Structures are given as C-alpha cells and as structure tokens.
C-alpha cells in the first residue's frame, strides 16, 4: 500500500508549558506531516493530553513556536483552531449529554452553517435548506461509522464504546484536515478496539485526514501509526517510526522504569 | 474628615454583620459544595423562633419576658430548632442530590428559602416584632464627646460579638478533631472519604454550626431592624460579599464584608445624592460584578483550571 | 395507547425534522390551537380570561425567555423580572413619545431594549459561571428597578414610577375587552413560542445546548462561547421584555417598577423548574401551575380544609407548597412536568409494553 | 418512457417495468431506509436506473442468455440489477448472501457465471477468494464502494460507474435496450433460484417470465392486491418467497417494496413502514410472539391482567370476527374494547397495524402461534409452494382459514394426489428445467407433466390440502405403522422451549428424538427460576431443563395418542443435543430445514445409544465458528425416557 505523505502540517518548536510552578511540557519539538498517523505515547502524566491541548489552542505554551501550515501561529483560541480544520476527541468523553446522537454530530458542522438565528427563527426556507444539506453530510458520517441504529438516541443512554464513536463522528462531521484523538480506544473491549482501529485507518485513507493520536495500547499504536513521539515527564524521549521507537533504549528504559 | 470616618466606621461595623451572614454561606459551601441561598431564610427563621419562644415561654414556665432565664431558655430552644432544621435539610434535601450539578443545589436552596419562610411565619405569625437584647442603639458617648463622631453603641457591641464568634470558630476549626476533618473535607471530598472521614456526619455538624451562626446574625439584625420578613434579605447583602471574598474563604468573607459595608455606606453618602439615593440595594452588586470581571475567582478564592 | 405510529415513515429530512414528528401529536396540537383561538374566547368568562388565561400566557412567555437562557444555554439568571420591566417601560415610552406608534412595533422595540440591557448584564457570563453568574444577575434585578424608580423620565414623571398602559389599537380594532386582550396575547405568545421552537431545533439551539452541556468541547468544535452566551442573553431578555410589555398592557394595565421585583424573578424561575428546564412546552405548563396553584389553595383553604388549619399557616401555605414543590421536583424529576408528560407519552407509545 | 413495444402483451418483467414507468411514473416503486430516511424511487426512476444498469452491463459485454450472479442483502440496486439482467435477456442467478465461499463457488461454477453484481466489500472479498475455482468470472460489479479504494483488480467495477457507462450508452443508442426488451419472450428464463437441496448438491431452478407472472397474477387477484400495498423486503433475495413477493408481485401489481436499513434495524423499520402486505416464515412470527410475551412479563400486574383478559377475549372470538362469522354482541363489544386497549396498540408496536394480508410459508406454523396473530385481527394466512412452483400452489382464501391446512389450490393450479399420497401439481408456474440437469428435470416431472413435490398430504372434506411430511421421509415402524418424522418434529417445535427437533423411528421399534432447546426462551425461563448456567451446552444438560422438555414431549405424546394414524409414533426416549444445529455445520439447510441424512451419519453414536437403552452417551463434535475457525464441543449427554399413552381409538381422522 503506497501512501503519499505531504508537507509538514504543524511544526511544534521548543514548546514549554507551565501551570503555576508545575512544568507540564518542557522544550518539546516535533512535527506532523500531511496524511500521516502520528502517535504520542508515554506513561500517565507524561503530558500527552497537554500536547494536544497546545495544538488546538486550549492551552497556550509559555515558550516555543507553533508553525501551522507554514505560518507562525499567534496565540490562538480553540474555536479558531476549529475554523482552521483542527478537530479532536477527548480522553474523558466530552459529548453534549442533553442531546441526541444526531444533534451532537450536527454541532460538529456548526462552523460550516452560515445562517443566523434570525433565519433559524423563521426556519422554513433558508435555514431548513441549510439544515437538510448538513444533515445529509452528517448522515454520511453516521453511515461511515455504522451508528445508524442509535441516530435518535440521547447520547447519555449509550454504552461507553458507542459514545466514543459518536465523539469521533462529531469530530469527523467538521471535515477536519487535522484530527486529534485523545485515547480513542481507552476502556474498550477487543472488538470495539478493532472497530475503532478500522475507522481510524479508514478516515485516514478515504479522506486523507492527518491524525495525531494518543493511545495506551502499544499494540494498536505500533499497528496503525506511521510515526511515534514518546513523552516522559513532559520531555520528549523518542521520535520515529514504530520500529525505531520500539528499539530505542531510552524508550525501553522509561517504559520498564514506570512499570508499563 | 470626622464625618468621613464616621461613615466609614459605621460602614465597617455593618460590614462585620454582612460578614457574619456570609460566614454561614462559606461554612456550608466549604463543607458540602452547596451554595445555600436559604441562609437568609435561616437567619429569619432563627430570629423569629427566638422571639416566638420568648413570647410563649412565660406562659409555660412563668419566667417573665426580659429576664435572663427566659432569654437563655429561648436561645437554647431556638438553637435546638436551628440544629434540627440544619440536620433535616441535610438529610431530606441535600443527601438525595449528592453529585448533582452545583446549580441544581443552588436552585434547591431557593426552594428551601420559600419553605423555611413559610414554615416560620406559619408557626409564629407574620407580624413584625421587636427584639430587645438589652443593648441601646445610642451613640457611644466617649466618641461623641471626644471626637464628635456618632458611632452606635449597638453596632459596636454587635461587631464585637461577631468578632468573638469568628475567632471562636477559627480556633475550633484549627484545633479540634472535627475542625480538622472539616478542613480535609473542604479540600477534597473524595480524599476525605477515602481516609475514613464520615462525610455525612461532617455535613450535619456544619449545617448545625451554620444554624448557630444564623441565630446570632438573626438576633443582632433582628434587634436592630425588628424581626420581620425582610431579615431574609440579609442573604442578599451577603452575596456580593461572597463574590468579592470568594465562596471558600473565611477571611475572604470578613474582608469582603468590611469592603462592601464601607463602600456601600460611602457610596450612599457621597454618590447617592447625585443619583437620587437608594443605591445601597445594587451598589455592592455592581461593585462585586466589576470585581469579578477582573478576578473571577474572588479575592481569596482558588484559581480553577479546566482539565480537558 | 392512542398512538398508531406504524406506517408513519419519513421519506424526507423535512418530514423527519418536523416539530411534531408523530401525526397524532400534530392533530392534537392543531386541535389545541383551534380550541384556544376559536372556542375559549366564547366560553371563558371574565375571571378566567383575566385572572388565569392571560397571566398564564404572559408568564409562560417570560418563563420561555428564562428557559432559553437557563434551560437551553445553561446560564442561570435571577433577574428575569427586571428584563420584563425594561420591556414594559420601553414599550410605554415608545408608545408615549412617538406619535402613532403601532403597538406591535412598540412591544418589539421594548423587547429589543430588554435585549440590549440583557447583553450588558450578560457580559459577566464570559468570565463567570454557575451561581457566581446567578448572583451577578441579581445586580441587574436591583439596578434596573432602582433606575426605573429613580429616574422619573422613564415613567413620564409619575409618582413612584407607576405607568398606566395606553390604549391598544391595531388596525382600528380596540383591544379593550378581555376577549380581545386574550386573543392578542395568545397570538403574540404563539408566534414567539413557535419562533423559539424553531431556534432551539436548529443550529442556534444546538450551540446553546452545547455550551450548556460542555463548554470546553463546544469551544473546541468551533463554537464561540462569548457570542453564543450573549446571544442567549439577548434573545432571552427579548422574550422577557415582550412578556413584560404584555404584562403591563394586557394584564395589569398599571404597573410600577417595584412590581418587577426579585419575587417575580423567582416565580419565573420556579415556573421553569416545575414546568421543565429546557422545554418550551414546560414553560407554559409551569406558568399554568404557578398561576393556578394559589387559586386552588385559596379555594381549598376557604372551603372545607380551612376550618382545620390555623389562619397563619393557611396564609403561608403558598410559600410552603412552592418551596416543597421546588425541592420535590429538583430531587425527583429535575426536568419537571414536561418530562413527566414526555414519559407518559413514551408509555402510551409503547403500550401495552412496559418498555 | 419510450415504450416501443406499444400494446405488446405484458408478458415479461422488463415490459411490466416499462409499463409501470409509463402509467404510474410517480408512484413509489421502492424505498430504502438509508441515511436516516426512506429514500424513495418512483417507477420512472427505477426504470431509468434499470436501463442504465442494463446498458452498462451490455457495454461490459453481457449478452442474451448470459447468467448474472446477484449476491447481497435486499438493496434496491440489486433488485434493479435483476430487472436489468432480464432486460438484456440474461438470467439472474440469486445467491444467498450469507453463503460461505465454497457454497458460492459451487453455484458460480454450476451456472458458469461470467458477471456478478454484489453488495459490498465483504462479498467482493469472498468472490476474490474463490476466484481460482471459478475461472469463468470476468466482471464483478459492487454496489457499495465503501472500502474498495485500494482494490486494483480490473475486473472490479463500481455500480455507479457501470450506470454512468450505461447512461452514455443509452443516450447514444437509445433503441438498443428497447430492442432487447422487445426480443424477450414469455417463456424465456427469467430467473435461476438454487434449491437449498436437502439432498445432494443444490440445483438451479429455471423459471420463466410466464411462470412467475402467472404466480404473481394469481396471487394478486386472489388477495385483491393493488398498487397501494407496501411490503417490507427483508428475506434473502435468493429465496423464492422473496422473489415472488418482493419482485414478481410488486412488478405485476405495481406496489411498493421497502428495504430495511440493516439487519439490526428490521424491527424498527417494520414499525416505521407499517406494511400492508407481509410475508415471513413462521420463525419470524414466532420470534415476534416470544418477544411480546417476554416484554409483557415485565409489565405491572394491572397491565398483565388487562392483557391476559383481552387475549382471552381474542382467543374466544377474534378469529371469528376476522373471518366474518357471527359473534355475539357482548363479545363484539369486548373485542372492540380489547382492540382499543390491547390489540391495536400491540399491532402498532409490532408494525402490523396496516396489514391487510400476511402470509407465512416455508415450514409448518404452530396452531397457537397462528391463532394468536389471527385473533388480534391480523389476516395471517398460509400458503404452500416450492421453488419449482414459484412458491405458488395452495393459498388460504379469506374467511376459510384452517389451522392445519395450507388452503385450496391457487388460481391456474391443478393439484392431485399420487397413490402413495404424494402431492402432484401442474400449472403455468412450473419450472422450465433444472439448469443443466435434464435427469433431475425428468425425474421431478411425471409423464403427465405434473411436478412431484415430494410432499405427502391429503385433501380434507372442504377441499383444503393438508401436508403431513416429505413423502420420502415418511417411513414405517417395525410394526408396520406409519412414521412421519416431520409431523412429529413440528409438533415438538410448536412447544416454545424447543427450537429444533429430529425424530427417528423408520425401521425401528419405537420413536426417539433429538431436541434443541430454544436458548432465549429456556434461558429466560431459567433466569426466572434462578438457575445459573454457562451457555447452551450447560443449560441443555440441566435436570430442570430435561424435565421441562419431558413435560412438553409428554403433551405431544398425549396429542399423538389421539390420532389413530400416529398413536404408535409416540416418543419413547429423547436427548437434548449439546450444540445447536447449525447451517454452517451442514446440519440445517440455509432455510433451516433439518438435513436428516447428514445428522443420522454425524450423530449415529447418539442414535445407537437411544435404541440401546443407555442412560448417557459421550460425544465430540466439530463445529465451525462465525469467524470461520473450527473447534470441538464435547459432552456426555443424558438420555431419558418419556411416558406414553394408550391410543384413543374413538376419534377418526378426517
């Protein structure tokens, strides 16, 4: 399978992040290229989630540069990141509990919906046309992730594994170019993990979406990612293809040392 | 200048009383995460129950109104009622709502406010009553003679009582077992549970202490303004104090109270005339709001980081 | 039990996103509307129209306003009455100061005034959440009422700020009789409720609910919190404002700023808690409940039960019952009567099966 | 629509299709639940799409007489492909979508398939896997492009692409397809359906346009079907029943077929569509009833009382009311109330409120089950037929429903009985031939042109046909009395805890049986009793379960004792099998019929144990799991005796 990688999508240079006196990330640099699946691994508390939060603007690093698509990025809010095509899922599911699956996924398209609340008030006409147009796209995502039978179910009633899938659906609905997945397979059984792996690969394959993913299951990471960054205590200790990383003595040390 | 000081000191003294009510909020919030809007109603309930008992006790015991025996007996009965009320609230209202979002707990205490008001008036009647603690609301002669300042003797003594209460509570929390447990609970509910601190037990104690504080506040406010429905609104006075001082900080409540009390009086006196007076109803709120925009966590509150 | 949904399939997204997707509900709704518009004016007496139906509709609208903010966008407000006051006084002044001002335009403008004030007092929501925000909205409550009392201009310099509603005349029709007032109120409320329903079922509503349910996630998918919250504040206040105008013009006739006090705000909050947080229908059910409860209590305590209950207790029964109901609903059914209705409906749809 | 055939007779399916497209272009022809709504295609659209596929196939080199394999779930585009193939004078060959690779390979080889239209990646993968065995296959067209991006084989083509090619072709040579349609004749073969073959390899049954149109016409007129019917198409397309109901009848009457979203959503989709015309094998009705009963058990006491009271009313008078027989006023009132409170809502929840006519066939249906549906006002009827007769031999007429008959001969059909009781049929719906099997064709048709169904049966006094068993299965016990295993097995299966049963007795002294318990029903029963169990094998060997099943068998025995012809067939000994009989293991056919011979070989040791009087027997069985792995199940099975009853001579059989 010949996959074509493109230019660097996002280049993180010497990123450091502190909360008060606590250093979450120290001088971390790595990049992500177009169409690849890039994994971030590391023991608990290594700063993996913080790294994703830096990429999509939830946290603002005190030091370092972020070059996004060739441009130095200024301090950016999460919604701006979203409007530039970055979507993500969360480690602890962050769905909108009071809404149905369908509505949750529809919110993923909010940036592409151009009508205002005045149109929505009147509904019939422009707003409805737009709603239907986006519903069609959302239905494609639903079909893609095979969650047709739960379309109208309130998300709160779904089992954990399906909630994760709905969250992925919401992110996909935004048609992102860069997708950040924070432990997409945590807490899933083997079958659910396999499904999720397949979906991640399919997304990457069919839409060419660049994916940055955090995952604990080493088997999964080694199977599906193109390159891996290893963090430990907020520092980068390894970077390379799965094989390179697997044989890196520093990485092995960190993992053995932390009883993983 | 003297006038300014007079206003300032008057403001600070009433600020101490605001702080007293705010203290009730802080205690409960710290221990159980509940923003107890009913604290004002508890003040009202306490004062009304006290007065009610002083009225009916002579018929039962023969101790005349105004005697020390009557006072203390009524005090004990009122305090017992507050404890019962506190524990009942914790049991019936809050326990079923454990782990609900804070906003739900807040709303439930609004309902509780109405309930307590209704019960208090239902039992003791709705008419305004006087409450005499035996302290005259007259200027302190010493200050009037020497500094030409009119400072109410009542306010001064009330502030003194409040301060004694603060100090006592502070000492209790610092040095008793229950106090330490309480502080542990305030820091982290889960952790406290895991080291075996009986959370529900602690909550019952805190609600009782809050009832006690409400009783003291009720007596002072009641003696000053009469025991009436309006006592409920002491809660409204305390809210800006809380915003300013933070919901979790006892010193915050005190300092917030002083700031609100002083600035409110000063604003009323110096700003009021330009806008037609009556601004003490909203001035503390606007002040607190402006303050919030700068420091959302309050003066002494802890900064909260959203974990994603 | 009475639902026969088999065969009601949806062949288009329009059909699938109807307000009432089930045919029986559509029929029920149309029948209800026909009853309210065509039958009620002829059978209801003065008392029912003026003391029950009109206030239910108006409070329902105000509760709907609060529900948009609290139930949908998740921002608690204790200042709804103040925004009603802005609407009422705004409308009054537009009617007073602009010659030939059409009433409907005046209430629209009054509502817009309320919306503007709503945005102003919604600003703290950008920094603070939950009950901090609730407390901040108290500032609006106290400040606005104070302004209306203190500045005579707003009430055309009447004593203690009392305003008397001008006569309402639309296209030559005088709205003086209770029937006409009822019909006008019903029309305005129906239209606004429909618009609100449309908003909450489209992207606007989804953004509100996203912010309500999980603001961090909402921001990450590109929802701008500030804009969304302020929009909710504005629209909510607009609804309260219009309700305030109707309150003055269609219900009381004369109002003073103090009439829009904290108690009224609480009452509206209670309506949504009992009726159903996050439900448009719930707003009206809650309003009906809160308006009718004192009436029922009155009847009860002046009737047979009154003899056994001390007078003091009887006169405070309303407070006790309100308080208990709030506590009851928050503990047992936080989504109020609307949810109970919904559950009953679910049961009926599944009948004879239990689930 | 360019119907150049003019007033030509509507004697082929392509002509029927073009006719509908011309006379009712805007009526819905097909719906498919996809992307959350029922995507609807009217007759004009269907015709246009069929043309596109047909021309696309022609472009690929598909010629008159070629066979086109069609494999997949019920999807509109697969139905269109059937029609498209017929337009070109080709022969659609329907395959079961859940067939394993080697079964598929056999059919593809047998039918010398060059072209195939398959549903999705899964089917493509299967095709590619068996490609070495089926050298004829030249083109595989897939409907759903999902996951197909990296398939580089040139023989693969998306249906979209094919249609695009076809549209261009149709535009350039608009006469081509009309001419092809005009070439079609009524006695051309319109379809090949493989019989699942209880014995030997499957045979391709060739049916003509004329045969299926006659069957469709007869059924349509018999039940007065109109273009307004809605039917849910969810049974395998390769089954003759689906082809008759969802294709031939819909094409004839012009009504709407509805394809569910997926296998899991059939029940919801059924409820949404609320079909007016419904067809399902008995097991579907049975599963539905089981769910109803299980769900009702969780209901509150009052609701259960209401339910059982009104079900009693329905049992008493429901069927009579449906049949238009006289019923007392009080019963009528109670039934009306029951309809309001129970039957109406129940039918609604099941999605059966709108049903005018429902049929069941393929196996015998339990009398209780049958009566239940009829009593709540669902006009459920039975029919009788085979793949070789377009599933069209006997139908139950409205108002003349007998629980144990399959009705009267359908219009145009002649039925007679051979001397040995075998049912012989003749009519326009008979097969033309078995594909490439003149021997088999000759064997199945007697010299008078009657098709020998292989079933044994008799007519009752009203002219209703009753089926006893497969003629060849009917055997004799050693005492010379008749032994009809199917008859016994069906009686056992009507018992809700029994899923499958296999009876033995031919040339033996007495009758014995293997039982498969119904895991869901018995599992539920065990849960209520508080019995713990770990899976099927464990549950099957529990004492309580044995006594539960024994009671059931005793009831059957009591029942058999009443029938003079069958009283000797009472079951003396039985065992509960350690595994569920499974089509994947070759024990059942794809239509879930027992493969008696295979089972007798496979479980010979058990049968011996039954007749040798052993109390238990150890057995080891190889099984195939869903993912294709093989494994072994071993167990020691208990064998138990059952009480039998003295024959009740008084009652005479009809």
Automatic annotation (TrEMBL), chain A:
UniProt-listed Gene3D superfamilies: P-loop containing nucleotide triphosphate hydrolases (3.40.50.300)
Gene Ontology CC: one annotated term: plasma membrane
Record carries keyword tRNA processing: no
Domain ABC transporter stretches: 10-258
Coiled-coil spans in chain: none
GO molecular function, one term: ATP hydrolysis activity
Pfam families in alphabetical order: ABC_tran, BCA_ABC_TP_C
Keywords: ATP-binding, Cell membrane, Membrane, Nucleotide-binding, Transport
SUPFAM superfamilies assigned to the protein according to its UniProt record, in alphabetical order: P-loop containing nucleoside triphosphate hydrolases
Protein name (database record): ATP-binding cassette domain-containing protein
Protein's organism: Azoarcus taiwanensis
TrEMBL record, chain B:
The keyword Transmembrane helix belongs to this UniProt entry's keyword annotation: yes
Subcellular location: Cell membrane
Alphabetic keyword roster: Amino-acid transport, Cell membrane, Membrane, Transmembrane, Transmembrane helix, Transport
InterPro entries the record matches: ABC_transp_permease (IPR001851), BCAA_transport_permease (IPR052157)
GO MF entries: transmembrane transporter activity
Keyword Amino-acid biosynthesis: no
GO biological process: amino acid transport
Cellular component terms per the entry's GO annotation: plasma membrane
Membrane topology: Multi-pass membrane protein
PANTHER family, sorted: ABC TRANSPORTER PERMEASE PROTEIN, BRANCHED-CHAIN AMINO ACID TRANSPORT SYSTEM PERMEASE PROTEIN LIVH
Record-given protein name: Branched-chain amino acid ABC transporter permease
Source species of the chain: Azoarcus taiwanensis
From TrEMBL, chain C:
Membrane-crossing segments per the record: 27-44, 50-69, 76-95, 101-123, 130-149, 182-200, 232-252, 268-301, 313-332
UniProt GO cellular component terms: plasma membrane
Listed InterPro entries: ABC_transp_permease, LivM-like
GO molecular function: branched-chain amino acid transmembrane transporter activity
CDD domains according to UniProt: TM_PBP1_LivM_like (cd06581)
Keyword annotations from UniProtKB, A to Z: Cell membrane, Membrane, Transmembrane, Transmembrane helix
Compartmental location: Cell membrane
Membrane-topology annotation of the record: Multi-pass membrane protein
PANTHER family per the UniProt record, alphabetical: ABC TRANSPORTER PERMEASE PROTEIN (PTHR30482:SF5), HIGH-AFFINITY BRANCHED-CHAIN AMINO ACID TRANSPORT SYSTEM PERMEASE (PTHR30482)
Protein name (record): Branched-chain amino acid ABC transporter permease
Organism: Azoarcus taiwanensis
Lineage of source species: Bacteria, Pseudomonadati, Pseudomonadota, Betaproteobacteria, Rhodocyclales
From TrEMBL, chain D:
Keywords: ATP-binding, Nucleotide-binding
Top-level taxonomic group: Bacteria
Presence of keyword Ribonucleoprotein: no
Chain coiled-coil ranges: none
An MF annotation (GO) of this entry: ATP binding
GO cellular component assignments: membrane
InterPro entries: AMP-binding_CS, AMP-dep_synth/lig_dom, ANL_N_sf
Gene3D superfamilies tied to this protein: N-terminal domain of ligase-like
Residue ranges constituting the AMP-dependent synthetase/ligase domain according to the UniProt record: 19-435
Identification of the protein by name: AMP-binding protein
Organism (species): Azoarcus taiwanensis
